[in-house]
Amino acid sequence: MHHHRAKNSRTLIALKPLYLVVASLFINPAYAEKADEINLAPVVITGNPFGASLDELVVPVTVLNGRELSLRRASTLGETLNGIPGVTATQFGPNASRPVIRGLDAERVKIMQNGVGILDASSLSFDHAVGIDPLVVEQIEVVRGPAALLYGGSAVGGVVNAIDNRIPTEKINGISGRTEARFGGAENQRNGAVVIDAGNGQFAIHADAYKRKTDDLDIPGFAVSSRKNNADGTLQENKDKLVNSSAEGDGGALGGSLTFDNGYIGASYSTLYNNYGTVAEQAVRIDMNSDRWDIAGEFKDFGNYEPGNTGLGSIINRVKFRIAHTDYMHKELDGGVVGTTFSNRGVEGLLEAGHAKIGPVSGVVGFQFNNTNFSALGDEAFVPNVNSQNKAIYVYEELPLGNAELKHKITFGGRLGHTSVDSKENANFGAGLNKSFNPNSYALGGLYNIDKNWSVTSNLSHNERAPSYFELYANGPHLATGQFEVGNTNFNNEKSNGIDVQLRWKDAKNSFSIGAYYTRFSNFIALINTGNDIPFDGNILPEAQFTAVPAIFKGLEAEGRFNVANHIDFLLRGDYVHAKDTRNNQYLPRIAPLRLGAGLHYALNGFSARLDALHAFAQNRTAQNELATDGYTDVSALVAYKLGFIVNTGKLNIELFAKANNLLNQEIREHASVLKDIAPAGERSFQIGARADF
Computed over its alpha carbons, how large is the radius of gyration of the chain? Predict the structure, then answer.
């Protein structure tokens, strides 16, 4: 542990500029009359390889950045996104929470960092945190629905792409950055971050550092629900406090790029440390480290594309590449003693080329690959060591239609892949096995503008996903979920067909969208309780087996923003998922209930205020051996005040804010959480913070 204490000291030194910058804002500033803030326009790269705006995307995409992201930041990626229509979270206590999109989680939701997948162990187990900290993320893009064509064959549920600008992609002249600090909340968090970008027009550098620390989470009442107490007699102990839910972590990055008029090339190094309690086991903490090296580049606007030109520009007009190498490891400490060590090391990358127009058609062709080595050693090593390799080529094409006033388009994509998942010989798992799959996916979409205000989009898709290493090879006790998990090496590709339709309306400051989707799986790989009991270490664990079942997922999503008066906006949102195993007409587990929300947002000059409410209905449509969940109403509020300053001929913007969460002090239990009956969300709490752009 001495290594980590030294590392924390270095991070504290790196964070000194954060506090110096905040302090400098109050030393002889010249007040600027209007407190403008730096808010970059969203550049959507996840939903479309051409960087199209949100209004031009066929698939539903949500983008969070700038001030809106800053005010939504939570301790985990899952909780930061929870509440976006269609998005819930696994919520394994306050420290490990992965996004769930349209009822799909784990491998079916691909989490990326700057367009390249992260390597961690978060999809293997709900108690494993995601290897990204929201404190230093500049923008988060969420694709709801199949995005497997461009970003990996497993992404049949959606994609979350966290963008941190650690490799600058554009020319920078001068110095800019941001700082944030916040204190309080149900977990008594103490967080700080600083991000700096600098350049001379040719060379750009980026540096960031952060540190966070939290105590055990304060909760309203008992950790164990009354439903679980009545069902199996589990005692309702530990009132008002979620035991073993504290955390501390830090990290940072340094990157640089050579920037040109038509592109960039650069590299970065980043590190992340996280130590947190696992909640499910009161003596177990996870000690996590992840180091990542990235290189990336993009060049566009090659030469002259005029007909007859035989140069490179007549074939290719843009090339980009991204490669990341990750060295991830976490140790599960039981009473301070290492019980199990998980490691995931590997490389992932892509090479993509945009071709010159073929008639009116624009498109890209790409090659994507990864090679990872996963290993687990110790008492909870319920999967063997595995080498996984994926290779795929993909194509995405757009055909514009319509006229200058009403633009329409048709999109087409295809992906051909090859996956190998090879286990290593192990005394507990037997001889090694070599399994290979050829998942192929296709999609056809369209955007039709009815008039200047109304538009409709639709996307038809066929998706195939190779089974993951744990779905194939799991065979052992998984104490975090309290089950003995068993995989199946005879699985084939998981296949699904789906349709997604969305109706959109926009008029000046007002907007509204409503969408529906329907996805049919011929062999959905689900973890199903068999009813058998397995003895382990003096205990009895229920057996849960990965099983391929026919399944249907369908649902609705809606959101709207309406300017009802000067400086006042009224917001609406809602989502609903219905998911069944159609083999025996049983509901699938951990599917979130109907949620409806509304809010009022007020802003005038530098002052703003918000009041938001989200009501989740009771979930009584449960799988076998799954408890129902009561509904709740989560009311939150925020007030903020922005100030502008001129210091040393530069512009500084500072915003002070205060947030209140769970104002009604409800017992909030997320049905999507495997720990919902022993780990509720936090009680009524208040948090203060400051953020600055310079």
Answer: 25
CB atoms within 10 A of CB 389: 16
Write down the pLDDT at residue 5: 40
The architecture that CATH gives domain 2-693 is: Beta Barrel (2.40)
pLDDT reported for residue 365: 95
Q: Give the DSSP letter of residue 314.
A: G
Element (H, E) at 561: strand 539-565
Q: How far apart are CA 640 and CA 651, in angstroms?
A: 19
Phi/psi at 314 (5° precision)? -75, -15
| DSSP output for 77-135 | HHHHHBTBTTEEE--BTTTB--EEETTB-GGGEEEEETTEE--SSTTT-TTSPPS--GG
Task: Write the pLDDT tens digit of every residue in 601-628.
Answer: 999 989 999 999 999 999 999 998 899 9
Identity of the residue numbered 465: R
Q: Alpha carbon of 38 to those of 66, 167, 451, 642: distances in Å?
A: 7, 20, 33, 12
- pLDDT band (50, 70, 90) for residue 504: very high
Distance CA 371, CA 693 (A): 39
Q: Which two tokens stand for residue 316?
A: 């290719």
- Report the predicted TM-score, pTM, of the whole model to 2 decimal places: 0.89
What are the sequence ranges of the domains in the chain?
Answer: 2-693
Which residues neighbour 13 within 8 Å (Cβ) at sequence distance 6 or greater?
A: none
Q: How far apart are CA 17 and CA 177, in angstroms?
A: 11
Pairing of strands 361-378, 337-358: antiparallel
